[in-house]
Structures
1.
Amino acid sequence: MPDTISVAVLGTGIMGAAMARNLARAGLDVRAWNRTRARAEPLSADGVRVTDTPAQAVDGADVVLTMLLDGPAVLDALRQAAPALPAGALWLQMSTVGDEALAALARFADDHGLRFVDAPVLGTKAPAEKGELTILAAGSPDVRERAERVFGIVGSRTQWVGEDGASGAASRLKLVVNSWVMTVVTGTGETLALAKGLGLDPREFLAAVAGGPLDLPYLRMKSELILAGDYSASFTVSAARKDVRLITEAARRSGVRADLAEAAAERLRRAEEQGHGHEDGAAAHFASFED
């Protein structure tokens, strides 16, 4: 791989845009494609070349980085890119697609001579913008040095969990972590709602657990959003609902009863129905109220 590598970023939503910007600022040759081009256009100011099609983005790229909503969206983008995909290019699949969708992506990589790394990330808007994501990765040892040249820019830590990207080990771990995240997010919203319903200031709850074993930073972060009424999205209700669906489906296939995930799915569904789908996942708080 040359000293200055070319990276095609497919998907420039909240996370993908931050990744593309950081890669360009680090001196890499970055091309970006997004289904809605206007959302990618601001990246031009950071030296990113915005393209009209996935094929234009990947043409001649050393690395293809996908950061799209789900498995079907990733596969659709890669199929559009197929005529221009360079054989031997490194494909860093960093979207949260779940374990079941991964098989089709890995087959596509094999069919087109791509080196496939399953690499979903932990973190939302702020750590993505700071290049402080945690990357959960599975891939062959002989591509790890190449992958780390990108991971080291978009993230602060990489946890390698397997030597075969097609195994789904990284994507399964992402579902486990997201199960915990959704438990905290939806539990925070429901707990603050209960405090309000019982005539208490929710901050009294936060004061009661402060500094003890029941306290944690994510509780504080999401509580402050709810108390401030600021639901600017770092990870939307609709995206969270998609992730919880992947969790519950994986749990059923593995014979695990995921009661908390099922409850989180219902709260997210109600919040989305109430019109909060585009807001931060903390807006699941509204599911606690009839109106």
2.
Amino acid sequence: MSRISVRGFAVASATAVTTVGAVVGVAAGGTQGSVINTEATAADATIADIPAGQQAQVQTASLTQQADVQFTQADAAALKSAQESARKAAAQTAQDKKDAADEKAAKAEKDAKDAKERKEKELAASKSDSQGTSDFTVKGSYSVAEVQAMAHQIVPADQFQCFSNIVNHESTWNYKAVNASSGAYGLVQALPGTKMSTAGADWQTNPATQIKWGLNYMNERYHSPCGAWSFWQANSWY
């Protein structure tokens, strides 16, 4: 070790030298003046300038001081790491709670929507069932206005326009319309037309029977006439 580096070591350990010098002075029977002298010369001293018996004590004091600094730094780093881990854990917990709440709200919204659709479907079916085809006067033929009047009485008001849109495209309200290529029949162009027999044996001649069957079909397959109309607009069939 060079004299310069040794001198730097002695300066960095000035406090330790002072303390050790004081202890050594007292142990040797020295006076307060020797302590003061040690303090005054410590900053300019080198290891070579310090009596051999005190060098080990000076070095030990300096190393102890360095260890204390290192321990303090380590404690600060550990505390910072613990605080960061706690922050991340709290943030993750908050996010998990938010995700769970969002999922619960979405499920509740879906359940409410499904319940509403079921209720609408049940009401439509109930209205269709209560409005039997026998309630309408049986005639040999029906005008478009008469057929539409029947539809107004059978189809729910908020679904009528969608139902009407489909019938306009499928048969222009002609309850005897036949598709020459496929054989689809009636107002809603059932394929085959015999499907409508589930609503009544007079499905070929009674518009009310066809309307009732068409409404039930749209409710069962698309949840409502408006659901059927949305599908029709995208595909040009339903």
